[in-house]
Amino acid sequence: MLCGGKKSYFAAAVCIIALTSMVTISYLRSQRLSHQPKVLQECSKCRGKIANSTITPLKDNRTFIISPYFDDRESKVTRVIGIVHHEDVKQLYCWFCCQPNGKIYVSNAEIDVHSDRFGFPYSAADIVCLEPENCNPTHVSIHQSAHGNIDQLPRFEIKNRKPEPFSVDFTVCISAMFGNYNNVLQFIQSMEMYKILGAQKVVIYKNNCSHLMEKVLKFYIEEGTAEIIPWPINSYLKVSSTWHFSMDAKDIGYYGQITALNDCIYRNMQRSKFVVLNDADEVILPLKYPNWKTMMSSLQEQNPGTGIFLFENHIFPETFSTHTFNISSWNTVPGVNILQHVHREPDRKGVFNPRKMIVDPQKVVQTSVHSVLRAYGNSVNVPMDVALVYHCRKPLQRDLPRESLIRDTSLWIYNSSLIMNVNKVLSQTLL
């Protein structure tokens, strides 16, 4: 009646709103239906070669699969961590094989390219597919077409399918180790600091390192602390050792660091209460608490509903050192002795200090290096008097004299335990 004959602005507005709502609902329904899994074929069993590499290229050479993960935080989906060319890859499909009936379901994938691409043509991406109902697939194949032969496609195990109790409190994710990495002494010191502060596991995405460093990694693997993820990304893409395309026009930035960090979060989502995201030359150093566990317990109590905790990065330049803790037996080991670097650069006016993070992995959807892009919980910037990122590296403010630096010996609180632990590692590996 109202739409039929009354010539009023109000009636017209109501008609427009009603029609728009109907069209929108119809569109959303059709979009959801287009992503619903469809039965393509039936077979007696699931075949196809199982992919065991960390990085698997598809035939288009524009899509690279890292690993699929089951994610039921919103709906029952398989979320595949991958790398795609942000312009060339427009359509992908998930192929699920359901046992015991042997039905092959194909889902139209949503390709969610991460926003922090920093100008590079290749980027971290989530390839997300709705799973078939009444089926808990153990493997998935990714294909450019909804048609074909599943026997010809590589199959990937879907991880995180079964919920498990946390096996550790803290896992550190380091990505990526490259450039024939040989900063052996600082790496050992960082590893021992992580253990002192509460880490039970350190996951390292390794591209390459020195022979000496390999011996150290072998020690930590056998100890049960280190998990090494092979990261041969330069076998497939031209990689940059910088963070922005304008600095080095290659395929992907910083050896695919962002992809590795996202994979590490999902890899540890069901086995670690917290995931620590920092580099091997960085330590998130508590200043008011003896370790990460007491610090995070307090921070969570003060910030209910928060899943992302960001810590301010501060540079302790390796060009300025003190004679204290000049341990002779360490002088033959390549790398930096962090105990001798206790002067930090002052804040630069108008310059933002980047942050590193400790996160609840179950609240993270997508992460970048210095912030989380999508999450279910809140984020909080942890004050510098509570904790800071001790970052010993080449100076950023190269022209500063020593008197302009700030003496900060917070690290020395741990010196006795650190020296003892480092000596133990060196005695069993290098000395």
UniProtKB/TrEMBL annotation:
One of its GO terms (cellular component) is cytoplasm. It is an enzyme of class 2 (transferase). It comes from Neodrepanis coruscans. It comes from the Eukaryota. It holds the Pfam family Glyco_transf_92. This is Glycosyltransferase family 92 protein. The keyword Metal-binding does not apply. The chain crosses the membrane at residues 9-28. Signal peptide: none annotated. It is a single-pass membrane protein. Belongs to the glycosyltransferase 92 family. Its EC number is 2.4.1.-. GO terms for molecular function: glycosyltransferase activity. It is found in: Membrane. Keywords: Glycosyltransferase, Membrane, Transferase, Transmembrane, Transmembrane helix.
